[in-house]
Fold each of these.
Amino acid sequence: MTSLFKYLGKFNTLSKEAEKAIAELSKTITVKKNTDLQPIGHTCKTIYFVNKGVARIYYFKDGVDITESFAFDNNIIARVESLFTGKPSRKAIQIIEDSEIVAINSTQLFKLYDKFPEIERLFRLIFESAYVDTVNRIEGIQFHTAEERYNSLIKDAPDVLKRVPLKYVASYLGITQVSLSRIRGSK
Amino acid sequence: MTSLFKYLGKFNTLSKEAEKAIAELSKTITVKKNTDLQPIGHTCKTIYFVNKGVARIYYFKDGVDITESFAFDNNIIARVESLFTGKPSRKAIQIIEDSEIVAINSTQLFKLYDKFPEIERLFRLIFESAYVDTVNRIEGIQFHTAEERYNSLIKDAPDVLKRVPLKYVASYLGITQVSLSRIRGSK
DNA sequence: GTGATTATTTATCATATGTTAAGTACTTCC
DNA sequence: GGAAGTACTTAACATATGATAAATAATCAC
């Protein structure tokens, strides 16, 4: 769980008591590739930290599997549209390669906010940062061609292409797998 | 400023002292149509609340004016990608019709967070909600045709079309104005 | 109110991406 | 290690949206 606290420390410095409180409601699990951590239709009550491995959030649009986002080593992943609303999520979290994951119980975590303002601040800062990433992503989706999007993925996150099946990358980029192959072929 | 506190009250109940503290660093201004509240290149240090009127966030992509988002009566608008990072924003906020705006000094507001955890919580909840909206918007952009996006805009926010020039709506939907006209014409 | 500017529509042609289908390459599992 | 399934590519055709240009409509300034 060391790397979790190293990650959290980048957002806010925590007291020993706060770290202990978070550790108490977290547990490390190893997960086999292709496993769903949480199924579609379930209300999200867990924030996951990818210690080592890869995960993605996905859902079905007209029967087609769509990847919303990826998380690699040392990053957090959660279905915020359910986590923050309490509504069931239409999305699932899937593990893409054999991974080591820290599962943080969000119901209990949110209860800690009253006792530990430093923890509330920590997660405020984490999700503010994620919010900024999401706002920036809209720009990338809306006003770049698929090829430009693919090129900047190669540049910003070359790991994705090595560790994630292309079919998942395609829907993440907002195109079909066939289009992605065409773009790759034209190089 | 009454409607601002009515809006804030939907997210978190505030003590009188907290309300007073927020009121002290806010000021109501009337702004003429087509005015930029804050120019491009400026680091965002203000959160705006639209008391009455319409505002939008926009930027230039290859010389073309792109609308990122709108805010109507009784809503908040801020360039979060600058507000939360401290970096200069490539975006501007423009007033679209003569409006009454409450400007909240964010530098001072963030300082209140230490003294008033209830204010930190309030804005955490506000931006968590905005984050969820943004995540949901990606889905709309990425996997619906321009026509579907236009139809759901009519349905969810008919005001937009009445109060906002179509050229701004087009880039918000991620298409050119000519395409938007074609879609409207085909009905 | 008239002219000038700005907003919107319509038409034509170009192009990126989608759809379907088939073929090849790679994995997995008994 | 061979069969079966899964992942990826390639090709041909269809279609939505972009680009450019020109026409009309609405708004603004004096």
Amino acid sequence: MARAATTADAFNAVAEPRRREILDALAQGERPVGELVDLLGLAQPHVSRHLRVLREVGAVVVRDEGRQRVYRLNPQALKPIHDWVAGYRHLWEERFDLLDDVLADLKQEEH
Amino acid sequence: MARAATTADAFNAVAEPRRREILDALAQGERPVGELVDLLGLAQPHVSRHLRVLREVGAVVVRDEGRQRVYRLNPQALKPIHDWVAGYRHLWEERFDLLDDVLADLKQEEH
DNA sequence: CCAACGCATATCCATATGGGTATACAATGC
DNA sequence: GCATTGTATACCCATATGGATATGCGTTGG
């Protein structure tokens, strides 16, 4: 079996830096494909492909506007990622907690 | 150019579900390879490869203990992911903020 | 010193990625 | 109706993935 498809889930879709850039751009507001092409400096077919992946994992939604296709962010699709990493947050912040403890102890000893 | 290497960064490394399982297991405490093999029900070489990827992105560190190799989680490596998704959090929670606003307005009108 | 154990690495395979380029298609303007 | 604009899709290619299996190698035990 090869690597999981990029469309398998948000984790895989978002592993590609360009797709994160697209999402970052859409976080500011919806945009037609052409604008994203200019913003990212990528070939139009390439941007369309990335958008397809993002659509398939539900990270964006499209709307037809004349001959343009306006893409909008659907942030909820990123929640699973947030929920997963958030579980680790206290672990990398632990060292600060420890530092706090040490400082508290030192303060205690002063008295 | 093919897809970015899984070892390119934490985003790519963590896109693989099995590797997330490994991290989840290590979040409970350090473990030798054999234990992870049992926990995940994967072939040993496969687990070793996943651990290699996780090592290369700095998500885990190894320690030699006799003929065992004990792996430990290095949560800081996940921080970039957290930092990125955290920026979107307010967007999927916006609807609750809006609800809050509505409720506040209703309360106002009561008076 | 040799056997067994614990892991890492090498190899083979099927798959699909992302890039590039060409092309198809729908909507608008003349 | 036809040309143009805005996007999507179809191909071709190089690459490296994850699974499976075999094997290398250091450590411990008898």
